[in-house]
Every structure is written in structure tokens, then in C-alpha cells.
Write a structure and sequence with these properties.
- With 318 residues, the chain is α/β, with parallel strands linked by helices.
- The chain has two domains: 5-106, Rossmann fold, CATH 3.40.50.150; 140-305, Hnrnp arginine n-methyltransferase1.
- Helix content is 20%, strand content 37%.
- Strands 6, 7, 8, 10, 11 and 12 form a six-stranded antiparallel beta sheet that branches. Strands 3-2-1-4-5 form a five-stranded parallel beta sheet, with helices on both faces. Strands 9-13-14-15 form a four-stranded antiparallel beta sheet, with no helix packed on it.
């Protein structure tokens, strides 16, 4: 039997005991009996259920996707329905009638940034969190490594001119798109380097700039920057997809390089990543490879060059 992509995605997270179990431990450590909790992007409702297990008086669970119907069924099945208010909307449109003691969101992407969590938590905590309240996750750090993601990992880009057609625009779109690989552990050409950290709720500049230097440890074709994260949920409780990745429902983020470079041990890769606090699905990234003080390769890309324009509706004369 095959399930819809949305249901399979959520089922995979529930089965990832490292990921979900760490959130359970963090919520049980942060929520006190009688607390009010807000869960932004509740999905199947599992984090809201953890808050109820910890003694929350009431949980406001916000979800804009259809999975909220399953979350409501699960709340009834587990005896939590009388303590959870489900709000079927985006968090920016949600209204909550009281202040919360804890605000939680599990919307970490494969690079930490990338699913709107930073902006949603900044808005939600400003409107709902009482002074001295707790935010989960508390912070996260982003890491990059040089990667050789050629076949079968790298998406196809060299379309040439099959069928007598110019398909170069497809190459441009794919190369300037950010994706992920399920496990890049065996494809790394060097160790992970920290390129930035962020405390939550985020109150920094709208434009987020990350950068770092990596040293190549293994010869190969450098054709991507591979991104991971390490998040501190609460206290000393950590969840991460850094290799070796224990939380297997996350892959690693992939920023493909337009101009791959054959690298050798000792080569230095200077990488830059940019995005926005209110739109962390828009990216710029660049890499410059240096050998013995000489630049041997460079790439600079943007998701703006990969965007596919939506045409105006055609008007056909009657």
C-alpha cells in the first residue's frame, strides 16, 4: 500500500524515535502542570500530546495543512481532546485568548533554516509568550561540508539538446534549486564546519548571512555544499542531523555548485550562504576553492535564478 506524500512524511517523523523522542524529553522538561502551551505547525499533534502528558492545562495546536484532521482524531483516541484547541490556519492568522508559558515548533529543515520556523516563532512569541516563558527549540547551529554528490545523488543538469530542443533553462532551474539528500555521510570530502548559530526567538537582522571555511580531506569532484544543523531544544537536550545522522527522518541540505571542481586534500573552500528571516526558502550561496593560495574554481548561485515564473492565464477569443 502507498500513502499520500503528506501522510508518509508525518509517519516517518513519528517513527524517528531520535527526533521525536528528544522533543518529548525537552517538552517534559519544560512544561509544568497547569501551563499553557502553543504548538506552531502541530502536524499530527504529537508535540501537543507530549505537553498534555507533562500536565499542561491547555494546548493551542496550530496547523494549516489537512493533517490537522488526523491530529484531532489522535487527540480523542489518547484522551487529550478536552485540553487541546486545534486552529486550522497559519500561525500568523491564529488568535489565542491567553498568554502561553511554552511555545514549541518542530519546523526545522535539513539545514535548520528553511521551513519558516524563525519568522513564525518570532511572531508567535511576541504575541503569545508570557515574560520569562520557554521557547523550544532554544537555539540551533548550522554546518556546511564540501560534498561530492555526483550520480546517483546529484540531480540531472546536463540535458544537452535532446529531441532537437534547447533545454538549458531546465539546467539553470535545477542548478539554482536547494534540495536534500537522505544521507550524504559517504559523499563528504571534508568535515563539517560551523557557519552560524541562532538563538530563538530570533531578533537579529532581516538578512541572514552565514559563512565559513572548510578544508578538503579527500580527493574528488566538489559539486555541492552539504548542510546540517544541531539544535538545542531545552536545557542540554540536543537534536541533530550531523553525520552520522541518528535522526534519520531528516536528510542533509544540498546546495549544488554550478561549476564543479576536482579537489585534493588540503584545498580550502570558502563558502557563503544567505537567506532572510521572513523568507528562509529564498537562498543565495557561493563557494570559492583555493589551492596553494590560488583560486581554482568558483560558483555563485541564487534560488532567484531557479524560480519558475507562473504565466498569466491565457485568454482565448470566443
Amino acid at each position: 500500500m502507498r500513502f499520500t506524500q503528506d501522510l508518509s512524511y508525518h509517519a516517518g517523523m513519528l517513527l524517528d524515535t531520535e527526533r521525536t523522542g528528544q522533543f518529548q524529553r525537552a517538552i517534559h522538561g519544560a512544561v509544568r502542570p497547569g501551563d499553557v502551551v502553543v504548538d506552531i505547525g502541530c502536524g499530527t499533534g504529537v508535540l501537543a500530546f507530549f505537553a498534555c502528558q507533562a500536565g499542561a492545562r491547555h494546548v493551542y495546536a496550530i496547523e494549516q495543512g489537512p493533517i490537522i484532521g488526523l491530529a484531532q482524531d489522535l487527540a480523542h483516541a489518547n484522551g487529550f481532546a478536552d485540553r487541546i484547541t486545534f486552529l486550522h490556519s497559519g500561525s500568523w492568522d491564529a488568535e489565542i485568548p491567553e498568554k502561553a508559558d511554552v511555545v514549541v515548533s518542530e519546523t526545522l529543515w535539513n539545514f535548520g533554516l528553511g521551513e519558516g520556523m524563525v519568522d513564525a516563532l518570532a511572531d508567535g512569541t511576541t504575541r503569545w509568550l508570557r515574560p520569562g516563558g520557554v521557547v523550544i527549540p532554544a537555539s540551533f547551529e548550522m554546518w556546511l561540508a564540501p560534498g561530492s554528490l555526483d550520480e546517483p545523488f546529484r540531480p540531472p543538469t546536463d540535458f544537452g539538446t535532446p529531441y532537437g530542443l534547447d533545454l538549458s533553462r531546465v539546467t539553470q532551474a535545477v542548478t539554482n534549486s536547494v534540495g536534500f539528500v537522505q544521507d550524504a555521510s559517504d559523499r563528504l570530502l571534508g568535515g563539517m564546519a560551523s557557519v552560524g548559530a541562532m538563538a530563538l526567538p530570533y531578533t537579529g537582522p532581516l538578512e541572514i548571512e552565514l559563512g565559513g571555511t572548510m578544508v578538503v580531506e579527500r580527493a574528488g569532484l566538489l559539486d555541492a555544499l552539504v548542510g546540517s544543523f544541531r539544535a538545542r531544544l531545552h536545557g542540554k537536550i540536543i537534536v541533530s542531523n550531523l553525520p552520522p545522522n541518528l535522526a534519520r527522518s531528516w536528510g542533509q541540505a544540498m546546495f549544488p555548485l554550478e561549476h564543479p571542481v576536482q579537489v585534493e586534500p588540503g584545498d580550502v573552500v570558502h563558502a557563503q550562504i544567505g537567506t532572510y528571516a521572513d523568507d528562509d526558502m529564498t537562498w543565495t550561496w557561493s563557494a570559492r576553492v583555493v589551492r596553494d593560495g590560488v583560486t581554482i574554481g568558483e560558483s555563485a548561485q541564487s534560488t532567484a535564478d531557479g524560480l519558475l515564473p507562473v504565466p498569466e492565464p491565457a485568454h482565448v477569443a470566443a
